[in-house]
Amino acid sequence: MDRQEARRRAEALVSQMTLEEKASQLRYDAPAVERLGIPAYNWWNEALHGVARAGTATMFPQAIGLAAIFDEEFQEKVGDVVSTEGRAKYNGQSAMGDRDIYKGLTFWSPNINIFRDPRWGRGHETLGEDPFLTSRLGVAYIRGLQGHGEYLKTAACAKHFAVHSGPEAIRHEFDAVASPKDMEETYLPAFQAAVEEGHVEAVMGAYNRVNGEPACGSRTLLKETLRGKWHFEGHVVSDCWAISDFHKFHHVTDTAPESAALAINNGCDVNCGDTYLHLLQAVQEGRVTEETITESCVRAMTTRFLLGMFDEHCPYDAIGYEEVDTDAHDQVAQTAAEKSMVLLKNDGLLPLDPGKIRTIAVIGPNADSRLALAGNYHGTSSRSVTMLQGIRDYAASHGIRVFYSSGCSLVADREEGLARMDDRLSEALLCASGADVVIACVGLDETLEGEQGDTSNFSASGDKRHLHLPDSQVRLMEALEKTGKPLVTVVLAGSSLNVPQGNAQLLAWYPGQAGGRALARILFGEVSPSGKLPLTFYRRVEDLPEFTDYSMKGRTYRYYEGEVLYPFGYGLTYVPFGIRVSATEGDRVTVRVENLGSAEAENVVQVYTRSDSPLAPPNPRLSAFARVCLKAGETKEITLKVDPLAFTEVNEKGERIPVETLTGYVGFQQPGEASEKLTGQKTEKVCLTRC
User: Fold this and answer.
1) How far is CA 236 from CA 121, 200, 226, 233, 448, in A?
2) How do residues 126-172 score in pLDDT, each as one tens digit?
3) Which residue ranges form the domains of the chain, and what is each CATH number?
4) 688 - beta bridge partners?
5) Is the pTM of this model over 0.85?
6) How far apart, in whole angstroms, are the C-alpha atoms of residue 224 and residue 239?
7) To the nearest whole number, what is the mean pLDDT of the chain?
8) Which residues are catalytic?
9) Is the peptide bond prior to 110 cis by the omega test (within 30 degrees of 0)?
């Protein structure tokens, strides 16, 4: 059904409710209204990289890993699998009367905040540091979740609106001050695309204030921008207990009824939290009208009608539980992991030749860790394959002996409480001494980088203090390097880390349930790595502005002018590719891509642009990309269309000023000395014009 019909039906239903019943439907845990045939519904559901917190489900790579694939079509495919499993679980569980939290169809994903600073613990939930890449992949995931049918398959939610990228520890009281230029150029484009192109059904507000206004009660963001400029028609939900922050921490109100009034009067419809329990008191105090509550209730119920919750003929109701955790979905998860991993360094050690290796040492605290596969906001996979297990399974089929040691704790200075410091180090060195090659699996997990208070974060806030491994792992890596054995470093993390050791280094992210199988296939050359960095890898945090400074100056590849460790868009492959621009016409670039190797492989064509305007960022920005798969020796011609926003520059008032011509840079990487030095390749320069 279309939105007009759904809204008419919602208005008719809501008109039969009492004020108390309308207000009750704006809680995240909305109770049943039995006299009207409305079942209870819990709006709080998660699906960041698979159906989360609701039992068994296929677990894909964490969002930042999915971003490293640089592929809109594949991103939508992942979203489609997630929505299929979400529907299957909802259909089965609601039929049994189970309408608990995390078991609904309104998924609070994707997180399209900009990963502006590598210290931010929740950065791995995002799609990286670039507004254009985030926009394209965010829209694709929304389409995968919501489907293309008469009804919504599930309802996606773009979060956190807006301007939140840490620090986690002070997010409940922090005022993120961003200039009009930075708002329009960096912080808002992905949300605008989610609304105008993705037709996202919901938007979630952030905890912080934005230029003085609490995000979940911001007239500027919710009324003037979201519903005014962008004509958003869905519902707005608060972040959890964010509205109570108004009076408890932001001190923009004095009481809970005042906070509830500020939020709902500015367009926040559903409250994750308990502040809307005070809506009726706010009405009695004259702060909120019944008409305002009615409108929010109509918006919320419109979403439920669009999901087919009150219809017997919704085709998605036919999706059965047998569609959860399937072999086919597991294969998509494996493909995602293979495409996402980024080869950062390789002196020729990789790929390993299974015919020449008789022994392998797999060492490190993340080698046999299921938690390191997951990232945060994850589901429970029944098929998790750790790095160790994936390597062991592959090695067994080729007669290769595997030695294993954790080597150290993830962060503590010893594994056993009564033991001496570094009590697993000697075991690790014994394993290394008997091996032809050492695979060190190190990094972080959601207990070291994540949401404040969401897990037992080592750092309490979830943010990182630096860009190095924990000390226990630094000592392990230094000891392994001193052995002189060929060393492959596999980093499992969701953000920028500076790990100097290793003849070869592979960034595996938090790769999901099939991470171990994917890693083994890449290590032994069954698959050529093809992931690209969706964020800049810096050398140290001291090179960055203050964490609380929301100006983009000196941040991300567009504005950072120092020396980087690994640049945005970077990633090596085993298979050499060639690229040549064959034509340009207006805003389109046609390139001829050739696989120069002896095996099928994938790569990502990237187009960066820059204008001559003094308003332009100091560095060229990503304006088009396309993943291409070619067989050995194959050549393919593809045409890329440059982002229309690339033909604008933003002034200090936040106004977009048209530009007529752009200098384009075409290749498999970001232009510049850093990328050229690491890859040995250059980008080709072209001229592009506005159409």
Assistant:
1) 25, 11, 10, 9, 31
2) 999 999 999 999 999 999 999 999 999 999 999 999 999 999 999 99
3) 3-35+103-316 (3.20.20.300), 327-535 (3.40.50.1700), 577-689 (2.60.40.10)
4) 662
5) yes
6) 20
7) 97
8) 239
9) yes
